[in-house]
Amino acid sequence: ISFNAIDSALSSLKNCQSYINSGMDVATQVALDLVQSLNDEEDVNNMEKVMLEYATMDRELNNYIKALEETINQVKREKPENLPDLEKLVQEQFLEMESKNSDSDFQMNEKYMYFKDQLKEMKKQCSLFCDHDNETIEQIDEDIAVTRSQMNFICPITQMTMKRPVRNKVCGHSYEEDAILEMIQNQKQKKKKVRCPKMGCSHVDVKGSDLVPDEALKRVIDSQNKQ
Fold it and tell me: Per the database record, which ranges form the SP-RING-type domain (predicted)?
């Protein structure tokens, strides 16, 4: 097996990763659709099973890619006179990595954790704003609805209804994407940290890497704007 052939195989494997990522994105959107339309909980649980299958495939693929890269780098460093059985070496390395797997590995899969996080947020938002048991938002106490709407929908920076909310994974608060990124950039130029602009929050180091799209909140805001 030539190293060029291996590089080509690695490229193909990494393309497979992009397909898995796309599948996880679609599964997340479908699960949010199911929660928002108040489908049976079993349907939502089935989507979580799909996500776990994707996460398992992603872990196996990552391990195989890592095993392949480490084996090739080792062979290149050692430069043996006779090229060893690379396929066997990679398989041995892969199986060793797989033997160390545990369920906690999924806590490291960002897309699976994002799925869990957004599902939780969607359920929380829908308990307030989605139709439930044939009741509409108009049948909920109006003062409570308006108060919760203001709390959930208004950006603490712009004081306007958010259009592209992002949520801070550290403290759980949401902001308008452009507004918080501009704040981070401005403070970065001054070599200062950004305190969470949500009143009462003690988090004092908001980072761009901690922000994720708050798809659940955006869906509810969009839904309310249409009413």
Answer: 140-226
